[in-house]
Every structure is written in structure tokens, then in C-alpha cells.
Amino acid sequence: MSNGDCCIAHKVFSGILRSDVTCMACGFTSTTYDPCIDISLDLEPNQGVSNKMATATSNHSCNGEADCLNSSQYCGTSTLTGCLKRFTRAERLGADQKFFCRQCQVRQETLKQMSIRKLPLVSCFHIKRFEHSSTRKMSRKVDRYLQFPFSLDMSPYLSSTILRSRFGNRIFPFDGDEPDASDELCSEFELFAVVTHTGKLDAGHYVTYLRLSNRWYKCDDAWITQVDENIVRAAQCYMMFYVQKMLYYKATDKQVAS
């Protein structure tokens, strides 16, 4: 809008990502900022699992919470914190992705690193469970289990933390930098909703688990039932929603008082 206002969805879910592309020849860094309402994360690679077993399991979809948890012994286990580390790690771009360095005035190989410039009130994470390969001409669903915490500290993935780790106490300002916006909000979050997907790539069913006053409820179409938190932990998560801890407990205190 012209007056700078935005809808409630953007006020709640909108954050800012920072992308640093650094020339490996001279060290010049180009920084860009992009608004986002969710973060899409790749699952971690299989670790300690044979390719044969992983491939066999990936051809089948989980039909329930227990099946998804049991399948993790064949598919390997990813963690949400591990996925966030992969998202914010420095990545060397290939020779075919050379970046034009303004300082060198030629295309150079570069190092790219993502970080979170500003946290939203509610952080939404989308897990990439649907893979599409143009070379193999095939698509599939990834049924691997993902461990996720109920309490999440986002400070390791903030731009301020990553820059401090990269340069020590010497923070070099880049073009377009502003005072750190991440300090305005708390970096500790609480899980309050999990969306799951069961079925295959071309057909499936979505179920949502909601946390209310530290009780978990399963929302399955028109049916809402209370469930144990272990059921939520075993679910094959597709999307997760974390709210700032101070806001979560403020809301919980109001519910208890009423």
C-alpha cells in the first residue's frame, strides 16, 4: 500500500533474508536483502545408510505417524537445526555461476552465504519433500523422518551472528547495510503448529497438529482430537510454525487466566 501498511499475514510471517556473495579473488562482497514469509529447507543427506535401502524406502510413502518414525531407520534422520545450518552455510558456486565482481571488473568464482536479517513474529519452515529431476525425468516424494525441537533458538542463523563468526569482532559494513534489525525481536521460538503430509506425490492427505496451553490437538478434516506430544514428534512434518517464545507464553498466560 502507498501508506506503507501491509496485511496481517505479512506483519506476522514476514522476515528478511540476507545474501552475501563474496569474490574469491579480491574479497569484495555484494549484499542483497529479500523479504520472505517462509523458509524452504532441504533435508540433510543420508548418513550411515546404504543407498539400496534408502532408495527402496523412498519408493514407499508413510501411512501414519508410527510408519514414518520406523522408516527413519532406513532413510536416515535429519534434524531441523541441521537443515538450518545447511541453509546458512557458505557455499562455493560452480565455475558456470561466476559473479561479475565490481572491484575486479571481471567474472570471478564466488562464495555465497544466506542468513536471516530480520526474524518474523512467526517463523514458518517448509520442508522440501517433493523432488523433481529434469535429467532423470522423474519426480518423487522424500519420506525421510525429520527431528524438530519444541523450543528453537534462531540466533545461530542470524546475519549478526554469522558475520561475527566470519570476521570476529570486526564487522565490516557493506553497501546498503542498516542497523541490525534482528535485535528488535527475541530469537527464541516455541513450536505451536505442524502440518504433515501422508501419501504419495500425486495423492495424499494433510493433517495439522496444533498446540494450545501445552496440549496438542490433531486437526484431521472435521475431526479434532487431543493427542500425546510423542505422536507429534513422530509425525512426518511438511511445514512447521514457530512463534516467538515471549508471545507464546503471553498468550498461554491469558488463556489460563480466562
UniProtKB/TrEMBL annotation:
Keywords: Hydrolase, Nucleus, Protease, Thiol protease, Transcription, Transcription regulation, Ubl conjugation pathway. GO terms for cellular component: nucleus. Its main location: nucleus. It is found in: Nucleus. It catalyses: Thiol-dependent hydrolysis of ester, thioester, amide, peptide and isopeptide bonds formed by the C-terminal Gly of ubiquitin (a 76-residue protein attached to proteins as an intracellular targeting signal). Residues 1-245 form the USP domain. Its EC number is 3.4.19.12. GO terms for biological process: protein deubiquitination; proteolysis. One of its GO terms (molecular function) is cysteine-type deubiquitinase activity. InterPro entries: Papain-like_cys_pep_sf (IPR038765), Peptidase_C19_UCH (IPR001394), Ub_carboxyl-term_hydrolase (IPR050185), USP (IPR028889), USP_CS (IPR018200). Coiled coil: none annotated. PANTHER family: UBIQUITIN CARBOXYL-TERMINAL HYDROLASE, UBIQUITIN CARBOXYL-TERMINAL HYDROLASE 22. Belongs to the peptidase C19 family. This is ubiquitinyl hydrolase 1. It comes from Vigna mungo (Black gram).
